[in-house]
Amino acid sequence: MKKKMIWLAGLFIATSTYAQTDVTTGIMRGKDYGVTYLLPKTEIEIVVEATKHTYMPGEFCKYADRYLRMNNISADPDIYWTIDKLQTRVIGVPDKDNVYFVKLKDKTVAPLMELTEDGIVRSINMPLSGRTVPATKITATAQEIIDPRKFLTEEILMASSRAKMAELVAKEIYNIRESKNALLRGEADNMPQDGAQLKIMLDNLNLQERAMTEMFSGTLKEEPQTFTIRLTPKEMDNEVAFRFSKRLGVVASDDLAGEPYYISITDLKTPAIPEDDGKKKVDGVAYNVPGRAHITLTGNNKKLFDGELPITQFGTIEYLAPVLFNKNSTVKVLFDTATGGLIKVDRENN
């Protein structure tokens, strides 16, 4: 699509005369100074928060039912994935087919324009309108891995067989539980002097119990991961958005190792867009009037998303009249950087 260039006003320069912002259509020349900005187009973003579970059997897994009455303990390692949360939203990406140029020239009143890092128009006459400092990402630390053997007694370590060792470890677990109960009931021989000391003692006993119990139950490591799938919107009817495998996690839409998740997109024809007769004048600051789409996302025999989202490609482009930008008032405009649509327009008299 042919690039459209809009000649908007120049920077504000203190002079005795001010001209109305001049907006014309033309081709940018190398000698001209100005700001190039873009309107965004919409992409649908599906964010899948999943967890990878890695199970490793314990050393005494075969004796878990006999000594600790723990049923269904597997003796085989296993890796599987689960989906924890799924979000569907729209984001804006630069539309290289809708590039505009704001010419800066002397003796005119021009808007102060703020752009995103991608060059998408963010605001007019609203400096630092939406700029935020990225939040510090905090990564959850994995559960500490404890070597249970450092809690084992000499009698346990010198046991003549694995079965005997499992029996002695199980007895030690029961002894730890009895000690915890005695502390909680206030019946222990050496009771702690205060609540802080009691907490330290209970935490240490819990750590020992967990480490020894995992020798029977095994360990389960959980690693959360986030997958992002982006789709260019068009009318779709139950097309595969992505696939999910319990063994591999999120996989490509054409990878038959995963179960399909389907997306449907229906253009709601809102707003009603008149037919282009070729007479529409390109004059002013361009902005998008996004259309609306009904979107459903289904998978695993469930409807995971069912709602309406704004879609730029289903809408049209309009223009803020250049007469708005003059010396008599200051017009402040805030744009939605995801769709290029207007969020707010304010006027302040000078």
UniProtKB/TrEMBL annotation:
InterPro entries assigned to the protein according to its UniProt record, in alphabetical order: DUF4831 (IPR032265)
Which of UniProt's keywords are assigned here?
Answer: Signal
Q: Where is the signal peptide?
A: 1-19
Q: Which domain of life is it from?
A: Bacteria
Task: Name the Pfam families on file.
Answer: DUF4831 (PF16115)
What protein does this entry describe?
A: DUF4831 domain-containing protein
Organism field:
Bacteroides clarus YIT 12056
Starting at the broadest rank, the lineage of the source organism is:
Bacteria, Pseudomonadati, Bacteroidota, Bacteroidia, Bacteroidales
